[in-house]
Amino acid sequence: MLVKPENNENKWERPGERLVKILDEIGFPEGYGRMIKLQEVLILKNKAAFSSLSYSAVKSWFSDRAPTMSRIDDVFDALAEDYPFPNDQRLIKSWWKVGGFYPFKDELDENGIKDISTKLEIKLSVIISNLMGESFADVSTEDLKTIKNKALGILEKFADPVEKEPDDDTLAVIVRGILSK
């Protein structure tokens, strides 16, 4: 059975919590006025994309809403001019939007081995993003979680030694995948 890593499992549940962690990791100024500072930096660095960016939109990013993926791309492009990102931006962008794998450091167990489900979550997030293409930019966080959970459910069935035969939905997904290649 697949087990989600317990470290950081619920700590980064909301997109706003993930945004704060991203800003902390890149060294964006902390403290009072952080939302206003972010809005100012974005407008200054990319007027074309952010000229109509409202404070309330930025404020919503710090709570329970992540912007569209195209907007996240614009945010990262603007911030990257002055703030270096420590890892692959694709993983960090996906993490802000969907959650899942903690992208900032490798979590090792007591034997020095990275949790296999962490690798799986990375692959799954990237595959979902790639397969959805441009429509990924407009999909809601809840819909992405549903897709991810369904995929993980299928994988759990494969990992369960008691399960001998997959259900019809799992077989249909497998056959569709084979036929699409």
Furnish the topology, listing elements before pairings:
Elements: H1 15-26, H2 34-45, H3 47-50, H4 55-61, H5 69-80, H6 89-98, H7 116-132, H8 141-159, H9 168-179
Helix pairs in contact: 1-6, 5-6, 6-7
What labels would you give this structure?
181 residues, disordered N terminus, elongated, single chain, 58% helix, 9 helices, mainly alpha
Describe the structure.
This protein has 181 residues and is mainly α. It has one domain. Helix content is 58%, strand content 0%. The protein contains nine helices and no strands. Helix 1 (15-26) runs antiparallel to helix 6 (89-98), helix 5 (69-80) packs across helix 6 and helix 6 crosses helix 7 (116-132). The longest helix is centred in the last third of the chain and has 19 residues, at 141-159. The chain is elongated and about 55 Å long. The protein starts with 14 loop residues before the first helix and ends with a helix. The model is unreliable at 1-9 and 107-114 (pLDDT under 50).
Major sheet characteristics: none
Uncertain stretches of 5 or more adjacent residues: 1-9, 107-114
- Distance between the ends: 28 Å
Q: How many independent structural domains?
A: 1
Helices, by number, come to 9
Give the integer mean of the pLDDT values.
79
Structural class label: mainly alpha
Helix-strand pattern, N to C?
HHHHHHHHH
Radius of gyration: 18 Å
Number of strands: 0
Q: Into which percentage range does the β-strand content fall?
A: under 5%
Give the fraction of residues assigned to helices. Answer: 55-70%
Which outline best applies?
A: elongated
